Amino acid sequence: ISQSIKFISARCLPQGGILYNLDSIKLAAWFGIPSNHSKFLNGFGIKVAIRDRAFHVIAENIPISFVP
Question: What's the confidence (pLDDT) of residue 31?
Answer without folding.
Answer: 78
